[in-house]
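Researcher: I need the complex structure. Ligand is thymidine-5'-diphosphate. Inputs:
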Amino acid sequence: MSTNATTRRVTHCRVCEATDWQEVVSLGDTPLAGGFLDPADRYDDEPFFPLGLISCRSCRLLSLTHVVDPEVLFRVYAYTTSESQTMRTHMTRVVELSRDRFALAPQSLIVEIGSNVGDQLIAYQRAGMRVLGVDPARNIAEIANAAGVETLTEFFDVGVARRIRAQYGPAKQILGRHVFAHVDDIAEVLAGAGELLDPDGVFTIEVPYALEMLRRNEFDTIYHEHLSYFFISTLVALFARHGLRLVDVERVAVHGGSVLVSAARADSAWTPRPIVAELCALEESTDINGDEVYRKFAGTVAGTVRELPELLRTLVGSGKRIAGYGAPAKGNTLLNVCGIGADLIEYCCDTTPFKQGKVQPGTHIPIRGPEYAKANPPDYFLLLAWNYADEIIQQESDFLANGGRFIVPVPRPAIVPGASDAGRIAGVA
Ligand code: TYD
Ligand code: ZN
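Model: Output:
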């Protein structure tokens, strides 16, 4: 069933306000990628929403065609930051990079937007800094507060920014990791950042890098929470419109290839590091302003949507058992768009207690814990959490030693021959 009550069709670009869009790819109607269901629920009124990608011909923002009401998406939120080693290491690095490049000192105030359960801010606390989280999800902010990370249960806007400044003072760094792409009213968030930022503070966001999504065919990272997919040149223009200057980019491997981007006040002393111009030149040479790169992406997506279920059907037809590894949000785009259901995937195995015992949105594949997978190993794991390929394949040496194999869905569906090839095939650094 489709529903329009809580969606809005995008008309104006949320970066540059232009209205001239190029269609990139339509993925049909899908359920919310984080809409895990209770097995006791009735599934017949499960909401599906249109999922499509368009490109602004003016600033090359990649945007979803439709925006789902944030109250539906983010007030009760299933996503908790993964307790993986990869992510812990990354969070420590974010603190070190920020401290070294932007002269953060002990007692500097760090405000994180979309701070989730507080893991990133705990890493800042360890470095002696003062921290404050802002996250609209009540269930998640509660966990953060209990862990000693003071967290306001709010959507960040100008009003919240003013209140924080009055109570805690200006922020040396405002951080938004994998949250900026979730924001429809970007201008409001940037105005809020303008209110709260210290004169020599930085606004740092981490977003999946659109160039990597196109290059590695990561179309499963398209889902309703992710309204925007950014190039650096788009962000340069965005920040400039709001009195900020993009001064630093660090390419990081998390979530399939992301960028940690920092902007300072245009009238501050911070100047852009050379990498900013280098990446803008790379984007130019990839011809992101032409249409062809988007047509090619759509063609590759269509190829995967055809080939992956074929591969799984062939395996199941020859008596093999397949389970999903992980129950990440992106897996639900993949499964729903490819039409891969419980007839092909017996269960998905995920370490997140909240997800275990539930069923996947749309496909209703049951989610189990790792113990269940140990007791009922499949012949193949479809690696839905491919962004953790290296870590997972290391963990699953027994599964591999016993003849089990992984299937990676992107950049092209492939059976991973052995442990050492997995990261290379999944394209994960
Ligand atoms: P995540 O990377 O957060 O992706 P998304 O943004 O698409 O939701 O999700 C990773 C999921 O994989 C998360 O539910 C935890 C799970 N997971 C495991 O089950 N085992 C593991 O070893 C790792 C690293 C992750
Ligand atoms: Zn635009």
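Model: Summary of the prediction. Residues 308-427 form a domain with the Rossmann fold fold (CATH 3.40.50.720).
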